[in-house]
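Handout, section 4.2: multi-component inputs.
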Amino acid sequence: MPDGYPHSERSRVKRLHQRGHYDHETVHAVIDAATFCHVGYVIDGQPYVTPTLHWRAGTRLYWHGSSASRMLRTVKEGVPACVTVALMDGLVLARSGFHCSVNYRSAMAFGTARAITDDDEKVAALEEFVEGIVPGHWAEMRPPNAQEIKATTVVGMDIDEAAAKIRTGPPADDEEDYALPCWAGVLPVTQTVGAPIPDPRLTPGIAPPDYLARFRVG
Amino acid sequence: MPDGYPHSERSRVKRLHQRGHYDHETVHAVIDAATFCHVGYVIDGQPYVTPTLHWRAGTRLYWHGSSASRMLRTVKEGVPACVTVALMDGLVLARSGFHCSVNYRSAMAFGTARAITDDDEKVAALEEFVEGIVPGHWAEMRPPNAQEIKATTVVGMDIDEAAAKIRTGPPADDEEDYALPCWAGVLPVTQTVGAPIPDPRLTPGIAPPDYLARFRVG
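Output:
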């Protein structure tokens, strides 16, 4: 058995359970393919869902933002959080509405986040984040100063439970519907990175670095 | 003043409030540009965030799924929900980590969802959903039967409060950093729809219909 995440009633894929995956390799591949996630948290019984960029080291998820962020001020206190990522890979058009669907990769991770309070550890985590997206850019930038480090909160969440849910392939119609004179198939959706747009104030003579080509989405 | 959503402490954009928008036109444009949303809900104090496709009519959001879905069984009971959409339009590389950012369009809507219990209303809503994505496909498909209608839950949520948050444009660096020998600018990200992939079991002679070209993402 490969390494996998525990799954309880909270995290088990219930509907279409054959689409569920719990092994680290599959769950991590979905998490890593998504540039941003949606963080769910509760304040006074009200759910909030905040999109933000994330990164991962082993079985730990990280995200960051302004220290004044409501989301970060809430989750860093150790309340239950749910971090979900979703990528749409295609629209699945079937011969009945009931079997129309979407090809997707999604993952839901549960845990409790904690703020990284050590400044060196915080900066190291941010470097790992930037280097994971555009390796080489960190070294070119001005290093963070004390005020910026204070104004930034980084949280880490050990994943207690997680599941990925994935759909691929053509529609799965009712057998008697295949004869219908209806187009059926998949409209694939992809995310692409376009040509770099230099800052209008870029110092003349600075060419787009090779590391820009390392940035991938999806 | 254009029509706008109320916003309280719950929904007001707090960080970088100049990125916040509450007018219907802006909020609806973001909601409509996203094919899927993330629905936040709470069970026994635990937040859950479930991705799903949505559609909109006026100031009402709709989504649907299996009647056995935990998410739908929960939200249709009239508990507080938060529906968030987010589109990433680009990675913003600045001359300091602190000013690195993302160009995005996001919206957060709060309300209470209710199941549509009338079968005709339910089917009409589903038709509106499909026609909003690929206008013309509904008429080609087999109509839903009684069992499928029963197995499908459609919920509608009147938006009580909502806000959009949008970032565009180049990095905004500290003035003294513009002289640094560091590349800065935007890596644009776009979602595109590829060529239709016919179902391997498609009846020979059925050409891709024109309505496939109507499907847009982002």
